[in-house]
Amino acid sequence: MKKEAQDEFTKQRIKKMTEELQKLRAENRLKEITIKMHEVLNGKEEVTVDMDPDDLKDLIYVMKENLKRIQEAMKKIVDNEGFASNVSRSFVE
User: Fold this and answer.
1) Sorted alphabetically, which keywords does the UniProt record give (predicted)?
2) Is the pLDDT assigned to residue 70 strictly greater than 90?
């Protein structure tokens, strides 16, 4: 009985550590692509046809997500300050 409990504990621990590893890998990938995005935007790196397709796909995703957050922040500012300008609203939306 004790051996079975120890085996179950070990399996649960392995499962938990595997999930934690996957989470850390995803976080590291996001950081890596975010750094690449900043390098591209600052002219330190170029997007070329030789770029890994997965890197390109992830880079596009990160850029779109950042643009969404910027647009949401701008919309909040416009809404809070009560701008009535169509130019401001069309740019934000």
Assistant:
1) Coiled coil
2) yes
